[in-house]
Design brief:
By secondary structure, the protein is mostly helical. The protein contains four helices and no strands.
Amino acid sequence: MKEDSQPYDLRRRTMEFALRVIRLCSKLPDTPEAWTIRRQLIRSGTSPGAQYREACRARSTAEFTSKMESGLQELDESGYWLEMLTYSKIFDVEETKALLREDDELISIFVSCIKNAKDRDKA
């Protein structure tokens, strides 16, 4: 896929998001509270990229929107765990806020992709 095409950009962006989540989680303190958040955040933060890649291989609009909606759910869950880190002050608030901003932007992109696919399917 060409480097300047949107699917590549979103693939790269979701991969970078996942890597940022992993790096953040590797810095969390060694406490039971942080273990819970680490486990959940790594799972939910790495899933949207995988869901998006599956969506790119979809055989139908319904399959595409299903995969994108699954990725959207994982992004929403990632936001929840990042908010938990922010409000609990378990970790550096500025670093979690930066990831929360990216999570919000990815949510907007996924919502737009889903909406556009559904609109195209109706036409």
